[in-house]
Amino acid sequence: MYDQVTLGLNVDPFILSALKEDITSEDVSTNSVMPEPTKGEVDLICKQDGIICGLQVFERVFTLLDNTTVVDMYVKDGDHVKNGDLLAKVTGDIRVLLCGERTALNYLQRMSGIATYTREVSSLLEGTGIKLLDTRKTTPNNRIFEKYSVRIGGGNNHRYNLSDGVLLKDNHIGAAGGVKKAIEMAKEYAPFVRKIEVEVENIDMVKEAVEAGADIIMLDNMTTEQLKEAIDHIAGRAEIEVSGNVTKENIERIKGLGVDYVSSGALTHSAPIMDISLKNLHAV
Question: Residue 267: left if φ>0, alpha if ψ -120 to 50, beta else—which one?
Fold first, then answer.
């Protein structure tokens, strides 16, 4: 869904907003020590093993501030990098390098952290045929970056936003008056090309969802025994997604049950950042 071309076409407004957040009028610290333009160079150094992600965004921060800034990359998104690796060199006006440093690193560290955590989780599903999905539990205004990072880490994107697909959750079901009614209403309203997914929490809801003809049934926060019972009842009549507090620590229990998808909000809301720094700034 999000390749580097797509990312490049859509991120500028978000990056500019982030820069405006950090520089409301001027960078007082930089202007104090660097009153005149001076060409300089700084190293991008990895301080932790992981999957690098967000290099294009990192570069764009600096080129939006000054389009003459040059970033020489020595790695690409998706590469496994190690503590101590030189990832890139940034050359340009020292004032630009200092002003953009924090914003550029914030994106790169966050995106690399998500890609690294996703790779750890997705590796646990290798050979199972189960697709790992993200969720909409993303940082506001950072979804495009975070979902791209999931893809780089080896995961898959669930729907991007509320306009992207039909997913009837507990409160939709409550508003409609039941699982069957919610599915019937969705089938009437949604375009026929859209699959209808419904979230269920117990075997009675599973039976209703199957009877009403749901395309995908999301088994939410179920015990292993409940999952087995639900999957046996569905018996291939719908695709199956498992969700609810899925992390790398507990994903093992889902393997071998016969599910199609596993969704995990932890990929975006709980991944730690990756430690990356800009070091050795000097005039050239």
Answer: alpha
Position 6 pLDDT exceeds 80: no
Q: Which one of 47, 131, 137, 181 is the catalytic residue?
A: 137
HSE on the CB side for 37, CA within 13 Å?
6
Q: Is residue 137 among the annotated active site residues?
A: yes
Q: 216-254 pLDDT, tens per residue?
A: 999 999 999 999 999 999 999 999 999 998 888 999 999
* DSSP code per residue over the chain: ---HHHHHHH-HHHHHHHHHHH-SS--HHHHHH--S--EEEEEEEE-S-EE---HHHHHHHHHHH-TT-EEEESS-TT-EE-TT-EEEEEEEEHHHHHHHHHHHHHHHHHHHHHHHHHHHHHHTTTTS-PEEE--S---TT-HHHHHHHHHHTT-B---SSTTS-EEE-HHHHHHHTSHHHHHHHHHHHS-TTS-EEEEE-SHHHHHHHHHHT-SEEEEES--HHHHHHHHHHHTTSSEEEEESS--TTTGGGGTTS--SEEE-THHHHSPPPP-EEEEEEEE-
Q: How far is 130 from 133, CA to CA, in rounded Å? A: 10
Domains of the chain: 4-118+272-283 (3.90.1170.20), 123-269 (3.20.20.70)
